[in-house]
Amino acid sequence: MQVHSHSVYLIGLGSYDITGPAADVNMMGYADTAQVASGIHFRLRARTFIVSEPQGKPVVFVNIDACMASQIVTLKLIERLKARYGDLYTEKNVGISGIHTHAGPGGYLQYVVYIVTSLGFVRQSFDALVDGIENSIIQAHENLRPGSIFISNGELLDAGVNRSPSAYLNNPSEERSEYKYDTDKEMTLLKFVDDQWGPVGSFNWFATHGTSMSRTNSLISGDNKGAAARLMEDWFEQREELISDEIPRRVSSIIRNHQDSHEELLELASYFESQPGRPATRVSSSARRVRSPLRKADKPGFVSAFCQTNCGDVSPNVLGAFCLDTGLPCDFNHSTCGGRNELCYGRGPGYPDEFESTRVIGERQFKKALDLFNKASEELQGKVDYRQVYVDFSQLNVTLTKKDGSSEVVRTCPAAMGFAFAAGTTDGPGAFDFTQGDDKGNPFWRMVRNALKTPHKKQMDCHYPKPILLDTGEMTKPYAWAPSILSLQILRIGKLFILSVPGEFTTMAGRRLRDAVKTQLKSSGDKELSGGEIHVVIAGLANGYSQYVTTFEEYQVQRYEGASTLFGPHTLSGYIQEFKKLSKSLVLGRTVQPGPQPPNLLDKQVSFLTPVVMDSTPGGDSFGDVISDVPKNLSVKRGSDLVAVVFQSACPRNDLLTEGTFALVERLEREDKSWTPVYDDDDLCLRFKWSRPKRFSSRSQATIEWRIPESASPGVYRITHFGAAKRLFGSVQHFTGSSSAFVVT
Length: 745
Fold this sequence. Notes:
Elements: E1 9-17, E2 23-28, E3 36-40, E4 45-52, E5 58-64, H1 71-85, E6 94-98, E7 104-105, H2 123-142, E8 145-155, E9 161-162, H3 165-168, H4 173-176, E10 186-194, E11 198-205, H5 223-243, H6 262-270, E12 275-279, H7 284-288, E13 303-307, E14 314-315, E15 320-323, E16 344-347, H8 354-375, E17 378-379, E18 384-392, E19 397-401, E20 407-411, E21 417-418, E22 424-425, E23 428-429, H9 443-452, H10 457-463, E24 468-470, E25 485-493, E26 496-500, E27 504-505, H11 507-522, E28 535-539, E29 548-549, H12 552-557, H13 560-563, H14 571-588, E30 626-628, E31 635-636, E32 642-649, E33 663-669, E34 674-680, E35 686-691, E36 700-707, E37 715-726, E38 732-738, E39 742-744
Parallel strand pairs: 5-6, 11-13, 26-28, 27-29, 31-39
Antiparallel strand pairs: 1-4, 1-8, 2-3, 2-7, 3-35, 4-5, 8-10, 8-17, 9-14, 10-11, 12-38, 15-16, 18-25, 19-20, 21-24, 22-23, 25-26, 30-32, 32-36, 33-34, 33-37, 35-36, 37-38, 37-39
Helix pairs in contact: 1-2, 5-8, 11-14
GO molecular function: metal ion binding; N-acylsphingosine amidohydrolase activity
Enzyme class: hydrolase
Main location: endoplasmic reticulum
């Protein structure tokens, strides 16, 4: 056990399930009405760290496996935290940042434009996030103990490319010459070390979009950053088991029963036929979970978060963008094929397998994080503090300094989206005849726009050269379509400053913000900041969401990111101005005025998502019955084969099985004939797929696919399904069923 006797902080980490509804709900990110959840690739989690000086103020940072943070989720969470802890945790010192997966349930934001495709507000999505974030913070709070924090930086070169290089090239050449790459390649990692238990977690920031999974995917997934977190946490768990002489449940190099021949295993498997569906309890799946916290109740679990930063123009589809029809590279300036955007797609390293691309980009981040984790030696020491302010970006006066030293006052604008917004990106192209780089618009879509809201001349002039497609900042029926009041926040831990921003900054926009804040900090006179490096990281998509932030020069090009910069060409300058004020107040110990309060629109939300009325099975069948079993005497090989079993099922919305599992792979223990859980629906190798024969059918089935990893132990296995069925009058019955046994060699 590693012991540190000179800790300067109290540290606590926590993690909780936020997966949400795995059926019927539109996914957040691509804004594609056809992308509706129908199963789980692996689960989503909220991961939290809390740091404080022994008698000082705490800071809380939560990384969520969601597309972005939500203002209404943040407001509800803070309300709950105040009820539980008083003024200990508030909107000022709690930061929530989304990893930007495009494969999580939507409907949890409060502004109209972000919940149109989800058929309005989805209470289950919202509650899963609020509950999960709250529980992760409670865990972290209860785990607060003396410990140390180490920081490490390093380059990761092959996990992101610039998807809008023509816009990036519009930045001044002298500025671009200061950087080797057109995306940020640096990963910054924090290593948390408990005085008693040794390492208990790590959080890192690296810029790449959560778009390895495409818009045709319907399985809930944490995408590449969620995959990296799963890999890192499993690596640590298996390392700890090896050190403590425990038997890892899933490592083939440790468990091998050489006394069992293939024939003996087949004979043993033949005794275990499929188990018919049978009633279960609510806790059945939680108790069988592979990563149950009850397994190590005496020690905090290892928490590893892969956080998002200035990913605005960074794609994980690193092979480049190509036309589906010709196989040739897409047009450089507009990302089109023959003048149209629909056929231009980026390719990930596993192309054409998006699951493999997700794994590879996740693994690359994991390996770099592991390298930084193992060599982290710079210890953070010094103040823990924070500042937060609300700013109305719809009418912010921004003072610009000209090259001759004089100044000019400009203004941001009420939110609006340009025509190129509808063109999408190479990660997910739009439809119709929209193209990136469109600074003119066209008469037909102007007519459609005007049917919703005609922007006035002052608004059009303010956003120039963006041609306005949706004047969202001035659309208020049935309630606000877009945000105007945003939360800006800085969390400080010694020489580390985390800038929580409610949007997606492009590479160069992020560089300018970090540099401006760093310059402000260096000139502050704070003795703690003299000597050594000041670390400034951007936590993207944090505490709310307001789409993109480009540089002024990138905005002129009006690619997707510029068209999605809501508050006009001076948005970035507004952020820089306000963050400089905030950082100055922080280091000088001054209080800041809270600013205008954002609206709470929870009571105004409406939903058109059809509820689950009831579930049923064909006559004579039970929920959990096996429809399609494994073949008799099945023997499969590790590292290459796939096993699939189909069960009679029910809608996953009946019970989200939070901190449980819908799917389980179990291995037979030869000695006592018991079944040990070895993989569940939080493993990348096990996929839970749910479907109905018809859209409004009360019948459904679950297909569980296990791609046997090389690390699986030889032996006898079976596949088990858990679920919950709704009866006509509203009660829910939990059930389970299992396949026949089969052999893995």
